[in-house]
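Appendix B. Chain record.
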Amino acid sequence: MREGGILCAPPPPTVPMPWLQISLDIAQDQAPLIEAALENAGALAVTLGDAGDDPQIEPPPGAMPLWQGVRLTALFADDAEGRSQVDALAAALSPQSLTPPLIEEIADRAWERVWLDEFKPTRFGRRLWVCPRGQRPAPAETGSDTVIVELDPGLAFGTGHHATTALCLELLDSADLAGKTVLDYGCGSGILAIAALRLGAARAVAVDHDPQALEATRSNALDNGVADQLQVLAPEDLPAMRADVLLANILSRTLVDLAPRLTGLLAPGGTLALSGILHDQADEVAAAYTQGFDLEPPREREDWTLIAGRRR
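Structure tokens predicted for this chain:
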């Protein structure tokens, strides 16, 4: 699953190209579902903003904006597939939009600069920090056991700022990963696999069907000095294995469908963490894993749920 809120910048192309942008104004309670629908449709970036003149006090990091009306904007490639997706989304989402959806063609931009402006050093749990390349948290905020993961904003599909990824990072920060093998299924930027290695895991495998995600993961692994410990693969190339820790931050329907496969990839006694789940989807996802796992009480953040457990 790609991050929500301000989310995933497309890797900068070698030749400047235009992009398609769809914008719509929605009620606040509709934002999580429509954001997820845009992600599922293949949006390259999703942003949330104020739909009106409704200034708010700055919310805590990762918190949902408190605007009554939310302007949701999504970016797609300006090609035949992108135009078809945008037209279909405009028709499907019109009933939920407070104003007619707006479709625009926008020029190529310096995406690295845009994401650097939005992406700041952020702590997850007690000691784990995720930072844009070249930035560090203030010395007063760190300790001798601080662990830093650097990401390139121009390549990152996930920076940890969305609740689904934040829940996974906080779980990793609290886990004993020393000597463990970690599988990050649906890796995006590779943030979870890389964080696990930086936190002491011995080996990690990162899996994604998107070649751009695999490229981003390899690049970020090199930047963080863990490339030798990380294997990056498409799902069809993943060999039989038994991970000690398995993280899957993807769509809930996919988590249900993948339950037999993910169960088989986790060693008995291993830790499972499933994220990308809206609250009203949690029971369905949990039901798909109850047979083989002892599940913990759900962990919740904003409108999202993480389901964790241990394989019997």
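Further analysis of this model is presented in Appendix C.
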